[in-house]
Amino acid sequence: MKRVKINTLLASDEQIEKVIVKGWVRTKRDSKEFSFMELNDGSCLKNIQIIADSKLENYVEISSITTGSAVSIEGRLVESPGKGQKWEIHADKVDVISIAPEDYPLQKKRHSDEFLRTIAHLRARTNKYGAIFRIRSEMAFAIHKFYNEKGFRYLHTPIITGSDCEGAGEMFRVTALDPSSVAKAGKMDFHSDFFGQEANLTVSGQLSAEMFALALGDVYTFGPTFRAENSNTSRHVAEFWMVEPEMAFCDLNGNIDHAQELLKYLTKHAITNCSEDIALFTDFVDKELRKVLETLINEEYAKISYDEAVELLIKSGKNFEYKVVNGNDLQSEHERFLAEEYFKKPVFLMNYPKTIKPFYMRVNDDGRTVAAVDLLVPRIGELIGGSQREERLYILEERMEQMNLSKESYWWYLDSRRFGTVPHSGFGMGFERLLMLLTGVSNIRDVVPFPRTPGNIDF
Ligand code: 4AD
Ligand code: MG
User: How far apart are CA 380 and CA 136, in angstroms?
Assistant: First the structure.
């Protein structure tokens, strides 16, 4: 007989004479005649209650079952007289697969997030983290579903690259050179390295995606990206996933409409397909979450220019830690003020000064700003960063010169502006920040299975 998952059993319309479930015991209590176990197999948030009669032949062994132990149960699925559960299983057979000793760390019902980070290899066995990682899985699927329905092609951009897309120089080096021979030589000799030149882990798949948008039309990448920025904040990790659509024949407005459509679709998908797990967060993690999600779905997102935002921030009279200066990048406190307090909904910020943005963004007619767009959302700040791309070869070359970028190493990128160049646009959405937004989880370390941050790569 085949094992059935608990989510399937709990959705059953009828009693079942014989079922097999396997999972881990969350809690157990014994009475004189029975042993009651709450069993979870990770298929859903809910446990199923198992009732084992003391007449079972291995009842002594059953009595020794502890929290965290793994068991296989054969029995009858019957209606439960208990509150809050439709079904329970009356066991005919209890096989102990393994007993967890008393030092199993998840004995209590509640543990702090900080503690659970120190046992990241076990935390998915708690209600909260089980829910987070089921939602993470479902939302990755939803992203592919959205783009598949819209006729976008899925592109695998390289993880190891020779170019720095964002030009911020926050890259992890990839090398096959032996550190001791590098030390002996006193320098890295890239010519003798694996690729014969410098190589890094990608910070964004954008430049490759642009090449394919100019061939396949609408494409997206969705994969891991890496940043060696030493910012120990609750919104940065060194390894994160990014969704990056890139669209040919699309301007900044088309880009913005697409971003709004994507976020609304994903929020609806989460509410429809992860309702039980989302409810855990609306009930226990963030009382405002339901409202936030409704706003994401129902409201038109605000749109303002960078200049307007700066003016708003200065007029707000708020005492920010970092002073607001036109020409400087906005800090997360500024971004959050705009989304959280001022607009109380997501806000698109457009047309930033070109001096604070990468070389590939399209220069506006004013010559001072570029067709950039960031989407700022309540509680997190920047969720999306993107732009219309500079499609005019001479302006792009000029920008690269101004920014001291080598035209030789970007020769292939420049080729795309020589051969059939067209207006095109795209953006990157941080997948972890999306998950924070949808769950109300306030630390990015808690939505990544095994987070990588400065000084931390234990698991
Ligand atoms: O704004 P960013 O740097 O944009 C790019 O990389 C563009 N090349 C994307 C594109 O146009 N195709 O990053 C995009 C998003 C940010 O808005 C943020 O959500 C997320 O990626 N992000 C991070 N998430 C977690 N940890 C970090 N260290 C992140 N850095 C960026
Ligand atoms: Mg950005």
Answer: 17
Percent of the chain with pLDDT over 70: 100
Plot region of 9 (φ>0 → left; ψ -120 to 50 → alpha; else → beta): alpha
Provide, rounded to the nearest whole percent, the portion of the chain with pLDDT above 90: 94
Treating both helix axes as pointing N-terminal to C-terminal, what angle do 206-216 and 411-418 enclose, rounded to 10 degrees? 30
Residues 6+ apart with CB under 8 A from 456: none
What is the C-alpha separation between 82 and 86, in angstroms, rounded? 8
- Would you say 72 and 34 are in contact if contact means Cβ atoms under 8 Å apart? no
CA torsion sign for 194, 197, 200, 206 is negative
Is residue 204 within 6 Å of ligand 1 at its C-beta? yes
* Short-list 114, 140, 109, 139, CA closest to 127: 109
For residues 273-286, average pLDDT: 97
Q: What is the Å distance from ligand 1's center to 226 Cα?
A: 10
Given the CA of residue 428, which atom of ligand 1 is nearest to it? Answer: 9
* Ligand 1 neighbour 381 (Cβ under 6 A): no
Which pair of structure tokens corresponds to residue 453? 């941050």
Q: Is the CB of 164 under 6 A from ligand 1?
A: no
> Does residue 166 line the site of ligand 1, with CB under 6 A?
yes
What is the three-class DSSP state of 232?
coil
The dihedral built from the CA positions of residue 184, 189, 194 and 199, taken in this order, carries a sign that is positive
Q: Which protein residue's CA is at the shortest distance from atom 27 of ligand 1?
A: 236
Q: Which amino acid is at 37?
A: M
Domain chopping of the chain, boundaries? 6-98, 123-168+203-446
- pLDDT tens-digit series, residues 317-365: 999 999 999 999 999 999 999 999 999 999 999 999 999 999 999 999 9
Residue with tokens 């990790």: 237
Distance 386 CA to ligand 1 centre (A): 9
Query: How far apart are alpha carbons 26 and 35 in whole angstroms?
Result: 13
Q: Which ligand is nearest to the CA of 429?
A: 1
User: Between vectors from CA 39 to CA 33 and to CA 43, what angle results, nearest 5°?
Assistant: 160
Neighbours of 233 (CB within 10 A): 12
CATH superfamily of 123-168+203-446: Bira Bifunctional Protein; Domain 2 (3.30.930.10)
Question: Does residue 295 contact residue 341 with C-beta atoms inside 8 Å?
Answer: no
Superfamily in which the 6-98 domain is placed by CATH: Nucleic acid-binding proteins (2.40.50.140)
Query: From atom 19 of ligand 1, which residue's Cα is the shortest distance away?
Result: 430
pTM of the predicted structure, to 2 decimals: 0.97
> Which atom of ligand 1 lies closest to the CA of 433?
19
Q: Tell me, using a 6 A CB cutoff, whether residue 200 lines ligand 1.
A: no
